[in-house]
Amino acid sequence: MELQAVLMAAGGGSRMMDLTYNTPKPLLPVGNKPLIWYPLNLLERVGFEEVIVITTKEVQKMISTDPKVKLDVKMKLDLVCIQEDADMGTADALRHIQQKVKTDILVLSCDLITDAALHEVVDLFRAHNATLSMLMSKAHEFTETVPGQKGKKKNGEQRDFVGVDGTGKRLLFMANEADLDEGLVIRKSIMRKHPRMHIKTGLVDAHLYCLKKSVVHFLADNKSISSIRGELVPYLVRKQFSKSTNSPKVNDETHQNLKKIDSNVNLEIQISSRDEELLHLTQERSCWNDHRGDMSEAYHGGRLRCYVHIMDEGICYRVNTLAAYIEANRLAPKLFDEPAVHPSAVVSERCLIGADSIIGASCQISDKTSIKRSTIGVSTTVREKVKVTNSIIMHGVTIEEGCNIQGSVICSNAVIGRGADIKYCLVGSAQRIEPDAERTNEVIVGTDQLMEI
Amino acid sequence: MADCGEPDGPDNKDNITRSKNEGKELTKEEKQRLRKQKKQQKKQKERKDEKGPSETEKEKTPVSLLPPRPVATQKAPSALPAPASAPIPVPASAPFHSSPTPSPADKPAKSKAELKAERRARQETDRASKQPGSSSSSIKTKAPLSELNPVVKRLPEHVQVDDPAVVKRLAKKLERQQIPLRSDYGYKVSLFSHLHQYSRKAPLTQQLSIPSTVIHPSIVRLGLQYSQGIVAGSNARSVALLHAFKQVIRDYTTPPNEELSRDLVNKLKPYISFLNQCRPLSASMGNAIKYIKKEISNIPSQCKEEEAKTKLLQCIDRYIEEKIVLAAKAISKYAIEKISDGDIILVYGCSSLVNHILCEAFEKSRKFRVIVVDSRPRLEGREALRRLVQRGISCTYVLISALSYILPEVSKVFLGAHALLANGYVMSRVGTSQIALVARTFNVPVLVCCETYKFCERVQTDSFVSNELDDPDDLMVTRKGKTQLENWQDVSSLGLLNLVYDVTPPDFVDLVITDLGMIPCTSVPVVLRVKNLDQ
């Protein structure tokens, strides 16, 4: 077997608590399918037959019991549960499943919605015998108004600085603005080997990584690394250019340093494979070099290599903020070609349903309603004379007559009283909006949620 | 048959000459047999069944197959300068000419010239009888010099791309093996429309499932490395292939009720098709594959799986050690004798063997300078330049367009080879024949360095018949942000051609340095024969 897929579905959705306090993030409906369906569908399309899904007990229960959550995937899902309150990072989760990892792995996050050609990422991984290969995409500006956002959108997302070489494939430098104190520091060794580097900031990390098996074993030995994105990837990118540790210099260093060197050595040793001499002979006899202009051999003799595939066009979203969630709902229908109006929905003739709206199963849409650019969830009831524009209505919602809902997100099991006028609001799960209410740009959540904050 | 035990050559020739002298009196039977042989050959190629005389002759041909073996081996030591392009008609006609003779003749041996004349006459009759027949008269005969099979091998499919029947057959074969078919790309120049032309931007892995289950992952990786040019160069490709096969053998388990010797060979077949789709196999790879298949089939059935696998892995290691590493050492030893102090050596492109020789010579403190000639679009000379300069050798770098300007300075030309063909032609990177030609006109000696495992039984006299077409988009250059040829596909009268190989005639090559010694180009068939006898 060549690659094992690992899907990280234990995240809490910390940046969109309003949506996730009742529904766990992997099960949030996007285009009337649970969020976790999208990466699973991607893996299935590409040809995977088994996936290891790391998730919480709650999600596992909901997947197996809840009829609304239908994951119609043909792959074998191996659900591994971890404690919710253990605060495990993604790297910790990998350490947890170390026993199951038998080959190189492809790590995905449950909030990735993309139509990328995965073979580009995996080909880089295979052809260059890379340790890490990842997917990134040019970020798109979110144009939709986000409910509940007051004032200008603050640039809360800290920028990522990604440095690639001339071909745009080799990953030379990766740092987050948060980790940089004063400025961008680039080591001289990198500049000597790759004098031309392109530094890009407008990229979205798709959190799709191909990792060698030896990295998982390395993680098992180094318990200090807890997040793949935050710590492991920058570490690997940095390690490409550190002095090779063929012979560990055991001087009188502190215990800390010794341990670090040991870990370095471990990684190098684990990366080298059997038949190293044959591979070396091949490289020696091959007339190929990945760079030119200096006297060094291909890859500068380094054994650790990190590659990135940057998508120019296509859909690639990480649904971890409200804005991304709304944007994803707009574009999700393009990824699967099911009919926009589910056959089991009861839609009366005298209603206007726009072409880009999705109506879920078992819905009841009454007369004289107008639904434009919206998503209506499963088992939702929409009464007469309702206007729904640019909104996302989740499952089990009841919208009474005469309502006007614009640019809003209504979570599951909410009830909107008659004649309410909701503009750019987020109505939490199981909330009731009283009749004739007029809400603009508000986040309406339950009192227990407020308590948590 | 009467002449099975014929011991010497001259007697044999007597039979031929005798039967030729009695040409007019050739029995109808013999004529029919000759015709039948040719029809069989045609039938193999065109799959047309001719009833009639062939039916009656069918049972007679198995008998006439017996004498060929001793006939051929006797011919071998006598160094006949027979053009190897017509070995088939000669042996094919030889056996049946000798078989019907009732008794060995006591005729005195005729002179060589007369024998040659008779042979030529016979060839002409063969050609005359062949002409009204097949259209594809360019039968590529894998000259079976040691084993005489009257069966002519089919043209390989990779040089018949413009024949839809062949393409359909290939597609069916690949479908059976569950390997995706790689589609051709772009407009092909008409002279080369019989060859495949693929685009590097459309790798074969696009159509494979990602955790590849049908094809072993190391083979997928190898195919990718071939198609992207990461592993390039005859030696590197063979070593990488053998390395991948080692992984395959390690991960192989014999299914129940199967024998390793047969099943493993069948497992390797789809992998080889896959690699062929990624990039056409080189001659050295072909020889390596033949060797492996032979070794696998020779595994005794009582051998336990673990033992068999270790044995195979050791065989592979030994093959690489002998044929590539030690051969390189032997060749450098011979070649260094030819390098004298004060020499100015010209090399072309990046040949791993030539680079090795020059580095060794430099270490043995020979004083020489190197001129590296390079050509677009590959520009492999840059890599050769880097390796030589890194060792401290003083080098000059020119493009092939400057060749005639620098040749007056050059004292020797060292060329590497991709394969050495059975008629003495050298198949190498495109541009090599140019170098050899211009060097000949300047009276500069041309030495080709080639290991014996790259010797190929194929025969080719021009670069059109069998070649490789690389991605035409490689010819596009972007200067100052502008790519002139960006929309070359829209121009209907424009075709881009990116050839990879060409053949150099033996007249331009002065010496071939192999691990068996320094031989003239025309002795390649002898080496092949000796090699086949050994095996």
From TrEMBL, chain A:
<dbReference type="GO" id="GO:0005085">
    <property type="term" value="F:guanyl-nucleotide exchange factor activity"/>
</dbReference>
<dbReference type="Pfam" id="PF25084">
    <property type="entry name" value="LbH_EIF2B"/>
</dbReference>
<comment type="subunit">
    <text>Component of the translation initiation factor 2B (eIF2B) complex which is a heterodecamer of two sets of five different subunits: alpha, beta, gamma, delta and epsilon. Subunits alpha, beta and delta comprise a regulatory subcomplex and subunits epsilon and gamma comprise a catalytic subcomplex. Within the complex, the hexameric regulatory complex resides at the center, with the two heterodimeric catalytic subcomplexes bound on opposite sides.</text>
</comment>
<dbReference type="GO" id="GO:0002183">
    <property type="term" value="P:cytoplasmic translational initiation"/>
</dbReference>
<keyword id="KW-0396">Initiation factor</keyword>
<keyword id="KW-0648">Protein biosynthesis</keyword>
<dbReference type="Pfam" id="PF00483">
    <property type="entry name" value="NTP_transferase"/>
</dbReference>
<dbReference type="InterPro" id="IPR056764">
    <property type="entry name" value="LbH_EIF2B3/5"/>
</dbReference>
<dbReference type="InterPro" id="IPR029044">
    <property type="entry name" value="Nucleotide-diphossugar_trans"/>
</dbReference>
<dbReference type="GO" id="GO:0003743">
    <property type="term" value="F:translation initiation factor activity"/>
</dbReference>
<dbReference type="InterPro" id="IPR005835">
    <property type="entry name" value="NTP_transferase_dom"/>
</dbReference>
<feature type="domain" description="Nucleotidyl transferase">
    <location>
        <begin position="5"/>
        <end position="140"/>
    </location>
</feature>
<comment type="similarity">
    <text>Belongs to the eIF-2B gamma/epsilon subunits family.</text>
</comment>
<keyword id="KW-0963">Cytoplasm</keyword>
<dbReference type="GO" id="GO:0005851">
    <property type="term" value="C:eukaryotic translation initiation factor 2B complex"/>
</dbReference>
<dbReference type="GO" id="GO:0007417">
    <property type="term" value="P:central nervous system development"/>
</dbReference>
<feature type="domain" description="EIF2B subunit epsilon/gamma LbH">
    <location>
        <begin position="344"/>
        <end position="436"/>
    </location>
</feature>
<keyword id="KW-0007">Acetylation</keyword>
<keyword id="KW-0597">Phosphoprotein</keyword>
<dbReference type="InterPro" id="IPR051960">
    <property type="entry name" value="eIF2B_gamma"/>
</dbReference>
<dbReference type="GO" id="GO:0005829">
    <property type="term" value="C:cytosol"/>
</dbReference>
<comment type="function">
    <text>Acts as a component of the translation initiation factor 2B (eIF2B) complex, which catalyzes the exchange of GDP for GTP on the eukaryotic initiation factor 2 (eIF2) complex gamma subunit. Its guanine nucleotide exchange factor activity is repressed when bound to eIF2 complex phosphorylated on the alpha subunit, thereby limiting the amount of methionyl-initiator methionine tRNA available to the ribosome and consequently global translation is repressed.</text>
</comment>
TrEMBL record, chain B:
<dbReference type="GO" id="GO:0005829">
    <property type="term" value="C:cytosol"/>
</dbReference>
<dbReference type="GO" id="GO:0007417">
    <property type="term" value="P:central nervous system development"/>
</dbReference>
<feature type="region of interest" description="Disordered">
    <location>
        <begin position="1"/>
        <end position="151"/>
    </location>
</feature>
<dbReference type="GO" id="GO:0005085">
    <property type="term" value="F:guanyl-nucleotide exchange factor activity"/>
</dbReference>
<comment type="similarity">
    <text>Belongs to the eIF-2B alpha/beta/delta subunits family.</text>
</comment>
<comment type="function">
    <text>Acts as a component of the translation initiation factor 2B (eIF2B) complex, which catalyzes the exchange of GDP for GTP on eukaryotic initiation factor 2 (eIF2) gamma subunit. Its guanine nucleotide exchange factor activity is repressed when bound to eIF2 complex phosphorylated on the alpha subunit, thereby limiting the amount of methionyl-initiator methionine tRNA available to the ribosome and consequently global translation is repressed.</text>
</comment>
<dbReference type="GO" id="GO:0003743">
    <property type="term" value="F:translation initiation factor activity"/>
</dbReference>
<keyword id="KW-0648">Protein biosynthesis</keyword>
<dbReference type="InterPro" id="IPR000649">
    <property type="entry name" value="IF-2B-related"/>
</dbReference>
<feature type="compositionally biased region" description="Basic and acidic residues">
    <location>
        <begin position="10"/>
        <end position="32"/>
    </location>
</feature>
<dbReference type="GO" id="GO:0005851">
    <property type="term" value="C:eukaryotic translation initiation factor 2B complex"/>
</dbReference>
<protein>
    <recommendedName>
        <fullName>Translation initiation factor eIF2B subunit delta</fullName>
    </recommendedName>
</protein>
<keyword id="KW-0963">Cytoplasm</keyword>
<dbReference type="InterPro" id="IPR037171">
    <property type="entry name" value="NagB/RpiA_transferase-like"/>
</dbReference>
<feature type="compositionally biased region" description="Basic and acidic residues">
    <location>
        <begin position="107"/>
        <end position="129"/>
    </location>
</feature>
<feature type="compositionally biased region" description="Basic and acidic residues">
    <location>
        <begin position="46"/>
        <end position="61"/>
    </location>
</feature>
<feature type="compositionally biased region" description="Basic residues">
    <location>
        <begin position="33"/>
        <end position="45"/>
    </location>
</feature>
<dbReference type="InterPro" id="IPR042529">
    <property type="entry name" value="IF_2B-like_C"/>
</dbReference>
<dbReference type="GO" id="GO:0048513">
    <property type="term" value="P:animal organ development"/>
</dbReference>
<comment type="subunit">
    <text>Component of the translation initiation factor 2B (eIF2B) complex which is a heterodecamer of two sets of five different subunits: alpha, beta, gamma, delta and epsilon. Subunits alpha, beta and delta comprise a regulatory subcomplex and subunits epsilon and gamma comprise a catalytic subcomplex. Within the complex, the hexameric regulatory complex resides at the center, with the two heterodimeric catalytic subcomplexes bound on opposite sides.</text>
</comment>
<dbReference type="Pfam" id="PF01008">
    <property type="entry name" value="IF-2B"/>
</dbReference>
<keyword id="KW-0396">Initiation factor</keyword>
